[in-house]
Design a protein that fits this description.
This protein has 14 helices and 17 strands. The chain is an alpha/beta fold. Strand 5, helix 5 and strand 6 form a beta-alpha-beta unit.
């Protein structure tokens, strides 16, 4: 039997992911040692309450509330507590002690990533965070390593399983957002307070991480434009289906050229958008995640899989743990993050994409011409026009039978635009809303992936 040296592993947190990591470390120790060339010894698990109920039965002697002492005796620290504090303090303590750190903490990485990377670089340690974006999907390492010699131009990602589950239920089952969210809660996909998910906050944190990595540029979380799905209606989803599209909450990171200066910059944003049903992301159902990468040389790449789940995310954590352990066996300093490009982060107003504008207008001669003139004056070019006659009820307009309504006749216009700058589109929508011929703007959706 081969005798291996031992590497001491400290685990912070024993929730759904942490408990699975601990279980796999204990159950698969021999197999992992054969891959690493060293034993991975779980020396302790720091938790707030050692007596709390857990889904996985673990040896009681491993639990402690003294995280600091546990950290100081470890070669590798796995942080799965979540939140900013005290996780940030513990990660900094671990890095400053020379230990490598593995984390799945997207909030921490999006908010304090540069500080943590600098701390790691100062002592030659390594910070791993594959599980912080996309759960089990391997996306961090491909962007950091496999595509390091390529130029990533654009990332379209479905990176929040809860919102994808909700929007998918609305599309496939015809549910309202409230009903779909209730189903997500019942099945454990949504928290009791789902604000972080449906408000787009979770996806924005992941967008900041992906953009920073893909473009070798620090992209602060506060620079990520964010819209959630709370305003997405069943009417919008049904109309998208009829037009051969689907609504998805997308995290979008891309290179842009500032039209005013000609300087290259980057954009990171999160919002619900229309994508055609023949796009690969349209086929991502349920609580799954997918990241679609467009690179200059490699072309189009897609990474798909479970975006959450205890054992699934534990898989990504263990992948990082094996990498960290191999580095200890081989020796040498950690590899610093590449943020040397430092491209400017452009405001969302500089984004150029297509749009679909749905409005209720007066059903009278000259309305279409008036609408077209407002769009033209705003620098927005019309690509498609759909019209239906009826009363103003949203994106789908019901016919009015003669003699059965006193409401003035209205029509619903659905305008598809060519590519336009976000700032120009926003100003044009304001002009449309103020026009005498437009009764209401029912919906403005961006069109991505075309």
């Amino acid at each position: 039997m081969i005798e291996y040296r031992s590497l001491r592993v400290a685990l912070l947190g024993a929730g759904s992911v942490g408990a699975q990591v601990a279980r796999l470390l204990l159950e698969e120790g021999e197999e992992l040692a054969s891959r690493v060339g060293a034993n991975l010894e779980l020396v302790g698990i720091a938790v707030r309450d050692v007596d709390a109920d857990r889904d996985v039965e673990l040896p009681p002697h491993l639990f402690t509330t003294d995280a600091s002492s546990l950290i100081l005796g470890a070669d590798i620290v796995v942080e799965l507590m979540g939140g900013i504090e005290p996780a940030r303090g513990y990660v900094l303590q671990a890095l400053n002690s020379g230990a490598d750190v593995i984390t799945a903490n997207k909030a921490l990485m999006a908010t304090h990533g540069p500080e943590l990377f600098e701390a790691a670089e100062q002592v030659g340690a390594q910070l791993y965070y594959e599980a912080a974006v996309g759960g089990a999907i391997p996306i961090i390492r491909p962007l950091r390593d496999s595509l390091a010699g390529d130029k990533v131009n654009r990332i379209l990602g479905i990176v929040n399983g809860t919102t994808n589950f909700v929007l998918d239920r609305m599309d496939v089952n015809g549910e309202t957002l409230q009903d779909a969210l209730a189903t997500a809660t019942d099945r454990g996909y949504a928290e009791a307070d789902p604000t972080a998910d449906i408000g787009g906050y979770d996806a924005a944190q992941k967008a900041a991480i992906l953009a920073s990595l893909a473009f070798h540029t620090t992209v602060p979380l506060e620079s990520v434009y964010r819209e959630g799905i709370t305003s997405v209606s069943k009417v919008q989803v049904d109309a998208a289906r009829e037009n051969g599209s689907v609504i998805k909450l997308l995290a979008i990171c891309e290179r842009l050229t500032d039209p005013e200066t000609g300087q290259e910059g980057v954009s990171a944003r999160v919002y619900p958008a229309l994508i055609r049903r023949d796009h690969p992301l349209a086929a991502v159902h349920g609580a799954h995640n997918a990241v679609f990468v467009q690179a200059a040389a490699a072309g189009d790449l897609m990474f798909y899989g479970a975006g959450a789940g205890g054992v699934e995310t534990a898989s990504a954590v263990l992948g990082d743990l094996v990498s960290a352990a191999r580095r200890h066996v081989v020796g040498g300093p950690g590899v610093a993050e590449s943020t040397h490009a430092q491209l400017p982060v452009l405001e969302v107003g500089r984004v150029v994409t297509k749009y679909q504008i749905t409005m209720d207008v007066a059903d009278q001669p000259g309305v279409l011409a008036a609408v077209a003139r407002i769009l033209s004056d705003g620098g927005v070019s019309v690509e498609t026009v759909q019209q239906s006659i009826g009363t103003a009820t949203g994106m789908i307009t019901l016919p009015v039978a003669a003699g059965h309504s006193d409401a003035p006749p209205t029509a619903t216009l659905v305008i598809g635009t060519h590519e336009a700058e976000e700032a120009a589109l926003a100003a044009t929508v304001e002009s449309l809303a103020a026009s005498d011929v437009v009764k209401a703007i029912s919906s403005v959706l961006r069109v991505e992936g075309s």
